[in-house]
Amino acid sequence: MAHTHSTAPTSFLIVALLILTALIYLCGWIRVRRLGPETIAYWRASSFLAGLFLVGMAVASPIAVLDHELLTAHMVQHLLLMTLAPPFLLLGEPLFTLSYGLPQTRMKPIAVAVFRLARVRRVGKVLGQPVFCWIAATATLVAWHIPALFTVGMQSEVWHVVEHVSFFAAGLLFWWPVIRPWPIAEAWPRWSTILYLFLAAVPCDILSGFLVFCDRVVYTVYLATPPRFGISALEDQQRAAALMWTCVTLIYLVAAAVVAVRLLSVRSSEEQEFLQPETPATMRAGTGPQSVEAI
């Protein structure tokens, strides 16, 4: 298979865009922190920058070169773009912070006006629906692993870029109902997120299980490349599938555990408030100035 990807110019452009995004975000984060130190915590900024770093690792590192020779490297790209980078980015409250990073005299009024449009809000409601996000992520995953479409993405630079963009966009959509950053509406109960993550793991498990136990090379484009690191094409396929199986299951399990812990902590605090005996307001206030100030 001829390698038609001009990786150097593309990698340079991607790195430049990532750096520009990081600068805009940091500028907005500094402005927001001036309004209130607790508005956007330090860990959110670190999370967003880590997400940008993971995107760069996926598309502008040696991994991007090896994806034409090893399915395992190609799978690492997919995991970074769809499973790892999006939750880190969304935890950084990107839309809120980036809007403050834009030039306040020109760009911000335009951005605010766009977000206030009724059509934009309707589109945002649709995109934030868990059912739509699940279907979009699952369809993207399954479609690009069809051998014919996979071959097209490997042999065409344009379609290769479209593949990466679709995986990244599907990852952002998938994690949006889980992270629930601004400006999502709380239309679905929080416990449904656990079911959402469980159902999302099923297509990945089926696909990876098929590739692991298949006795032939499904993506024949890798048969045309010489073995790397002493690994045959079939062994490479099995390792890539095992990597997806393990990583996706583990990441979704951790996310579901975090949601469950938060639900239990909220329920415990509500029960404590309910069981706490009522006391008159005068008794709660006390007589000393310290107790009054605390209230």
Outline the structure in words.
This protein has 295 residues and is mostly helical. The chain has one domain (7-271). It has 14 helices and no strands. The chain has helices at 7-35, 42-59, 62-66, 71-91, 94-101, 107-115, 118-127, 130-144, 147-155, 157-179, 192-213, 233-275, 281-285, 289-294. Helix 1 (7-35) packs antiparallel against helix 2, helix 4 (71-91) packs parallel to helix 12 and helix 11 runs antiparallel to helix 12 (233-275).
**Radius of gyration computed on alpha carbons:** 23 Å
Mean pLDDT over the full residue set: 83
Largest sheet: none
Low-confidence stretches: 1-6, 278-295
Quaternary arrangement of the chains shown? single chain
N-to-C CA distance:
72 Å
Question: Share of helix among residues?
Answer: over 70%
Please give the number of β-strands.
0
**Whole-number total of structural domains:** 1
Q: In terms of structural class, how would the helical and strand content be classed?
A: mainly alpha
Order of helices and strands: HHHHHHHHHHHHHH
β content, as a range?
under 5%
Large-scale geometry: globular
* Helical stretch tally: 14
